[in-house]
Write a structure and sequence with these properties.
four-stranded parallel beta sheet, single chain, 30% helix, alpha/beta, 145 residues
C-alpha cells in the first residue's frame, strides 16, 4: 500500500459529520477524526494518492522499469496534465510515460504533456512548470526519486 492522502477539513459549528463527509466524498474513502492544533479535523484517507496536475520529477538514481512503472501508472491515474523530468535518465522517464499513455497497441486515450530537461537545474524546471498553461490551474508538485 502506497502513501496515503490526507486532507484536513475544519468542522464548522459542529455541522460537518462523518455521514456528511461520506455523502460528499463517495465510496472508497475512510475517515479518521482527530483533534489537531485545537481544531477538529477530518483526515480523508483514500486508496489512491492523488497528485497535482503539474509534476516535476527530480531523478537522482535514474530510470528502472521496476521502480518507474508503478509511479508513472499512479501519475496517469491521477490525471496529471504536465510531466517534467530533470536529472539522471530524464529522457528515459519521459519516454516511459509517453509509451504508457500511448498504450502497447496504440489505443491509449490519456494525453499528458511530457518534457525532459537534461542539463537544466531543478529551479529552472520548476519555474518552467509554474509558467506552463494547463486546462485546470495546478500547483507544481516535486517528486524525488
Amino acid at each position: 500500500m502506497g502513501r496515503l492522502t490526507h486532507r484536513c477539513l475544519t468542522e464548522r459549528a459542529g455541522l460537518f459529520s462523518h455521514e456528511a463527509a461520506g455523502f460528499f466524498l463517495g465510496k472508497g474513502v475512510a475517515l479518521d477524526h482527530r483533534r489537531q492544533y485545537g481544531r477538529a479535523c477530518l483526515n480523508l484517507v483514500s486508496r489512491h494518492t492523488m497528485h497535482s496536475g503539474k509534476i516535476v520529477l527530480v531523478s537522482s538514481s535514474g530510470y528502472s522499469q521496476d521502480r518507474g512503472y508503478p509511479l508513472l501508472q499512479k501519475l496517469i491515474e491521477s490525471q496529471i496534465e504536465l510531466f517534467c523530468v530533470v536529472g539522471v535518465d530524464a529522457e528515459k522517464w519521459e519516454d516511459a510515460l509517453d509509451w504508457l499513455c500511448v498504450g502497447a497497441d496504440g489505443s491509449g486515450t490519456q494525453f499528458i504533456t511530457t518534457t525532459s530537461h537534461p542539463g537544466e537545474s531543478e529551479a529552472e524546471v520548476i519555474e518552467f512548470a509554474k509558467s506552463f498553461s494547463t486546462k485546470q490551474p495546478h500547483e507544481v508538485e516535486v517528486v524525488r526519486v
